[in-house]
Amino acid sequence: MANNPVQESVEQHALRMVNIEKYFGLVHALTNINLEVGRNEIVGLIGDNGAGKSTLVKILTGVFPPTSGELYVAGRKIDFRRYNVQSAHAHGIETVYQDKSLGEKQVLWRNFFIGREIVNRLGFIDVKKEKAIANEIMVNTIGFRSKGITVDSNVSQLSGGERQGIAIGRAMHFEADLIILDEPTVALSLKEVAKVINFVHKIKEGGKASIYISHSIPDVYEVSDRFIVLDRGEIGASIPKKDISLKDLDGFLLDYAHGLKDKERS
Amino acid sequence: MNSVRSLFKFLGRLEGLAIAMVLLVLYIALILAAPAVFTHPLIYISFLETVPPTLIAALGLTLVITAGEIDLSFPAVVSLSGFALSWGWKTFDPAYGAWIGIGLALAAGALVGYINGVMVARIGVPSIMATLAANFFWYGISILLAGGLQVTLKGSEDNFVHELFVGRLFGSVPVQAFWALGLAVLLWFILNRHKFGEGIMFIGDNANVARVMGVNVEATRIRLFALHGMIAAFSGIIVTLDIGVFYPDQGNFLLPAMASVFVGGTSIAGGAGSIFGTVFGSYIIGSLAAGVVATTISGYWVQVVEGVVMAAVIVLNAATGKGNMAALSSRFRHWGAPVPANPAHELLPKDDTAPN
After folding, report:
1. Interchain contact, B198 vs A101, CB within 8 Å
2. By three-state DSSP, how is residue B245 classified?
3. Which domains does chain A have, with CATH numbers?
4. Rounded Cα distance, B261 and B263, in Å
C-alpha cells in the first residue's frame, strides 16, 4: 500500500508518514511508523513517557530528520535536507507548544504576525492592517471573550488557556494544513484546560486537521476523532472514537501500561 | 470624564514622557539652585553640543539592550572611526578627503560590529565577553594606527562637512543635536514599525519563540551589532569634527551612555526598549555634572549626585513600568497591613519615636 501512493488518496490527507524510522545511535526510537491524518481530522496521539511522541513531533516540525522514511504534507513530499523549523511553516505545519509559542512582553497583534509581518517594500509593518486581522481572528476565528483584552493587550495579561487560544488562532489564520498541539494543557488549571479544548473544537469547525498530544486521556478523548497509541516507538493501535468509549480507552491503555498487550501479541 | 481618561491613555502611550518630566524637574531644580547659569540659553546650547555623541551611541545601544544583548565595544569604535576620518582628511585633498574619511569610519564601525555579531550569533560567545574583548582589541588597534598621537583636522572650520554635521543653525544651535534627534526618530520607526525591530523585541523577549516563529535570530543579531557599530562610528565622526582633533581616548563615555539607556527606561531584561526615553535620559545624564558644579556645591559631589539621581530614576522606572505598579502596591499593602497588629511596634524603644 505504501509502495504505490495513489494520487487521490494522497490528496485526502493533511499528513502521511510512510515507514518512518529513527535511530539515535543504536537506540531504535521509532519503528516503521505509518500514519495518516485526514484533511479535517483531529488525531489524538497517546503514549507513555519514552513512547516516541516527542521524537515524532520533532520530525514533523523539522527539528531533526528521520533516519529513513517519507513524509507527505497535504500531498507534497517533504525534502528532509531542506526541511527545518522555519520552513515547516511554509509547508503548512504549525505547532502550539506548552510554552515558547508567544513573546510574553509583546502585544497580541505583534504575536499574531511575528515572522510573517505584513510589510511594505521597505519592510515597514502595516500596523493598522495587522491589528484589524488580529482582531478578526480573536473575535471570529477563536471566539475570544475575555473582557478588557484587545489586540493591544500584552501577552502577560492573558491566562494560560487564553495564550494557547491565541497560538491556535494564529495557526488557523495562516492556513495551516496541520496544527500540532504538543501538550498544550500542561500546567493549566481545569478551567483553562476547558478553554483550550474549546479552542481545539474551533480547529475542527474551521475545517483543519490537528494532532493532539496530551497525557490527559479525557482531554484527548473529548477532542479527537481517532486515537493513535504509540508504544515503545511503534504504533500499537489506531482506534476511531466511535468504536470505543472513554472508559474502554482508559482500560485499553492501562492494559498497555501493564504489558498485557505484549502477552496477547506473543 | 471620558475625555480625561482618553487623554491619560494618550499620554501613557507617549514614549519617554515620564523621563521627560524628570528632565523638566531637574532643569527647574537647577534654575532654582543656580539661576545665574540656568536662566541663560548658553548652558542649554552647550548641552546640545556635548550630549549628542553620547546620545547617538546610546540610541544604538538601546536596540542592542532591547535584543537582550550588550555592546561594550562602542568606545573603541568611536576612537577607531575618528582615526579613520582623520586619516582620510589628512591623506587626501580635504574637499573630498573628508568624505573618504567618513566612508572609512562608517565601514570600520560596521566591520567591528559585524565581527561582534558573528562572535555572538554564530560562535555563541556571550555578548558581554565578546564586546569587552573587542573594545580592548580595537582601541589598541586605534592607538597603534595613530601611534598614540592625536591628529588635527586642518582647516576643518572652513570645510562643508564640518558645517553639515557640527555647524551652528541660526548662528547658535548646534546641528549635531538635530542629527541625533533625526537618528532617534529613524530608530524609533525601525524598532517599532519595522520587521527588523519586531525581531529585535521578540529575540530579547524569548529567542526560542522568535526562532520557532520564523525570525532569523542569528542574522538579526549580526545585523544589529553591525548597525550599532555604524551608529557608534557616526558618534565618533561627530566628536572628531566637533573638536577638530582626533584623539584615541575620545570614546570615553561607555558608562554615561549605558546610564542614559537605563535611566531612559529600557530594561536590561530585554524585550522592550524606549528610544525617546534614551533621548531624555542622555540629557539628564549629560546635564548633571555641569548642573552640580553650577550650583556651587563642591565639584567632589558631582558623582554622588549623579549616582543618586540615576538610582532614583531607575527605581521610578521599575515602579511605574507596565504591570509593575500592581506588584508594587501589593508590596506596600503587605508592608502596611501587619503594622497595627505588629507586636514589635509596641516594643520599639521610646527613643526611636518621633519627638513630640
Report:
1. no
2. strand
3. 7-265 (3.40.50.300)
4. 6
Task: Using the Cα atoms of residue B286, residue B289, residue B292 and residue B293 in order, give the sign of their dihedral.
Answer: negative
- Contact across the interface for A103 and B202, Cβ inside 8 Å: yes
Strands A226-231 and B245-246: unpaired
Interface pTM, i.e. ipTM? 0.80
Q: How far is CA A175 from the centre of its chain?
A: 14
Within 10 Å of residue A58's Cβ, how many Cβ atoms? 18
The band of B14, judged by pLDDT with boundaries at 50, 70 and 90, is confident
Inter-residue contact A44 to A253 (CB < 8 Å): no
Report helix, strand or coil for B302. helix
* Crossing angle for the helix pair B275-294 and B41-66, to the nearest 10 degrees: 140
C-alpha cell at A248: 474502554
Taking chain A, what is the end-to-end CA distance rounded to the nearest angstrom? 26
Q: Which residues of A touch B323 (CB under 8 A)?
A: 154, 156-157
Interatomic CA distance for residues A240 and A219, integer angstroms: 15
Residue range B13-320, CATH number? 1.10.3470
- pLDDT, mean over chain A: 83
Q: Quick one: A232 exposed, middle or buried, by C-beta within 10 A (0-12, 13-18, 19+)?
A: middle
Q: Which chain A residue has the Cα nearest residue B206?
A: A103
Q: What is the pLDDT of residues B347-356, one digit of tens each?
A: 334 343 333 3
Asked if the Cβ–Cβ distance from A101 to B209 is below 8 Å, we say: yes
Question: How large is the average pLDDT for residues B4-32?
Answer: 82
Q: Do B271 and A85 touch (CB under 8 A)?
A: no
Q: Does A110 touch chain B (CB under 8 A)?
A: yes
What the block records as the C-alpha cell of B229 is 557599530
Query: Does residue B109 register a pLDDT over 90?
Result: yes
Query: What tens digit of pLDDT does each residue of B211-269 get?
Result: 888 899 999 999 999 999 999 999 999 999 999 999 999 999 999 999 999 999 998 88
B189 touches chain A (CB under 8 A): yes
The residues spanned by each domain of chain B are 13-320
| Residue B6: Cβ within 10 Å count | 10
Q: Tell me the three cell numbers of residue A24.
A: 539515535
Q: Is residue B272 predicted with pLDDT exceeding 70? A: yes
Report the alpha-carbon distance of residue A264 to residue A252 in Å, rounded.
Answer: 12
Contact criterion met (CB below 8 Å) for A34 and A2: yes
Q: Is the pLDDT of residue B80 over 80?
A: yes
Of A214, A247, A238, the residue nearest A96 (C-alpha):
A214
Those residues whose C-beta lies under 8 Å from the C-beta of residue B313, and which sit 6 or more positions away, are B19, B22, B263, B281, B284
